[in-house]
C-alpha cells in the first residue's frame, strides 16, 4: 500500500475565515504521524473532514490508496475531543453496546479492554473512572472493528504524567504489536517527540511542513548564537571564515550558525580585526521544541 491518507488542497471556510487552508498531507503505512499545531490552528477541523464529520469547502480526502471513502472509513478508528461512553455502564458494557451499535462482533470486547489495560475494572461504572482510564476507554471504542488507521485528537490533554505515559505506551503497542498506522494531533511537542516517526506542522490553517523524525533530528543539532553591533557586516565575514552557508540573522540582529563552532576565539578575533564588537557568542542546542515553536508561529 502506497499511502494510508492523502489530502489535496483540503480547505474549510467558516464565515470567510480559512480554518483549514489548502492542506496537502500524506500519511504512509506504519507511521505514527505527529500533527503539531497551536490550539486553534485547525487540527480538529482537519480531522473532522478526514472522518466525514464535516464537509470540506474544497479539496479532496483519499484513504487506503483511493479506496471508496464509505468503506475506508470503516477501517478507521478515532478519538476526537472528549471520549464518548455511557457513565452508568461498566467498561465491558460500554464496549459491547458500541459493538452492537456498529454491527461488530461482541466476542472481541474483552480482548479490546485487555489491549488498553481495562480488562480488570469489573462492574465499576465508567463515570467513576479517572481521567486517564476514561481516555483509555475512549481509545478502546476507537479499536472496535480492528481498524488499520487510528486518529487521535489531543489524547493526553489534561492527563497527569502517569496518565500521559500510559497513553504513550499504548500508542507504541498499537503500532509495534498490531501494525496500526496512527495520526495523533497535539500541541505537546515533548510527548510527540518520544513516539512520532513523521510530523506535519500546521499554523493558521496551513500545513507549513512535513518532516520525518530522522530529518528533524539532523536539523536540530548544535548551533552557535552570535550578537554583534554590526550583524549585516559580520555575516559575510563569518560565512567566509567558516566556509558555510548555514547562517541567518533574525529581526533583532542575532546571528545563528546552524553548527557548533569549535574555535570561537578565531571568530571573535576576525570580527574584532574588522572593527566589529562581539557582544556575546555561545554554542547552544537548537531543540526540537524551539524548531516547532518557530514553525507554528506561521507568517
Q: Gap between N and C termini, in Å?
A: 36 Å
Number of helices: 11
Q: Numbering strands along the chain, what is their spatial order in the largest sheet?
A: 5-6-7-3-8-9
The major β-sheet equals: 6 strands, mixed
Q: How would you sum up this structure, described in words?
A:
The chain is an alpha/beta fold. It folds into 2 domains: 207 residues, P-loop containing nucleotide triphosphate hydrolases (Rossmann fold); 77 residues, Alpha-Beta Plaits. Helix content is 35%, strand content 27%. The chain contains 11 helices and 13 strands. The strands form 3 sheets. The chain has a 6-stranded mixed β-sheet with strand order 5-6-7-3-8-9, with helices on both faces. The protein has a 4-stranded antiparallel β-sheet with strand order 11-12-10-13, covered by helices on one side. A 3-stranded antiparallel β-sheet has the order 2-1-4, covered by helices on one side. It is elongated, with a radius of gyration of 24 Å. The protein starts with a strand and ends with a helix.
Amino acid at each position: 500500500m502506497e499511502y494510508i491518507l492523502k489530502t489535496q488542497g483540503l480547505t474549510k471556510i467558516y464565515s470567510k475565515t480559512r480554518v483549514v487552508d489548502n492542506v496537502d498531507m500524506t500519511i504512509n503505512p506504519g507511521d505514527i504521524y505527529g500533527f503539531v499545531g497551536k490550539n486553534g490552528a485547525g487540527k480538529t477541523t482537519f480531522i473532522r473532514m478526514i472522518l466525514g464529520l464535516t464537509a470540506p469547502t474544497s479539496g479532496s480526502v483519499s484513504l487506503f490508496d483511493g479506496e471508496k471513502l464509505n468503506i475506508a472509513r470503516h477501517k478507521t478508528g478515532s478519538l476526537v475531543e472528549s471520549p464518548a461512553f455511557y457513565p452508568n455502564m461498566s467498561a465491558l458494557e460500554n464496549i459491547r453496546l458500541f459493538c452492537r451499535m456498529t454491527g461488530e462482533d461482541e466476542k472481541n470486547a474483552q480482548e479490546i479492554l485487555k489491549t488498553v489495560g481495562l480488562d480488570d475494572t469489573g462492574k465499576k461504572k465508567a463515570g467513576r473512572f479517572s481521567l486517564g482510564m476514561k481516555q483509555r476507554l475512549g481509545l478502546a471504542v476507537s479499536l472496535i472493528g480492528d481498524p488499520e488507521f487510528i486518529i487521535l485528537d489531543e489524547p493526553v490533554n489534561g492527563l497527569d504524567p502517569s496518565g500521559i505515559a500510559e497513553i504513550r505506551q499504548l500508542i507504541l503497542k498499537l503500532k509495534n504489536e498490531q501494525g496500526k498506522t496512527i495520526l495523533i494531533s497535539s500541541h505537546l511537542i515533548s510527548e510527540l517527540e518520544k513516539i512520532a516517526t513523521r510530523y506535519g506542522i500546521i499554523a493558521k490553517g496551513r500545513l507549513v511542513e512535513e518532516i520525518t523524525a530522522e530529518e528533524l533530528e539532523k536539523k536540530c543539532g548544535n548551533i552557535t548564537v552570535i550578537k554583534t553591533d554590526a550583524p549585516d557586516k559580520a555575516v559575510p565575514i563569518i560565512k567566509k571564515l567558516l566556509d558555510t552557508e548555514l547562517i541567518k540573522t533574525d529581526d533583532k540582529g542575532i546571528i545563528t550558525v546552524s553548527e557548533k563552532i569549535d574555535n570561537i576565539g578565531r571568530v571573535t578575533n576576525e570580527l574584532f580585526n574588522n572593527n566589529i564588537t562581539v557582544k556575546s557568542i555561545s554554542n547552544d542546542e537548537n531543540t526540537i521544541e524551539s524548531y516547532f515553536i518557530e514553525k507554528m508561529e506561521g507568517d
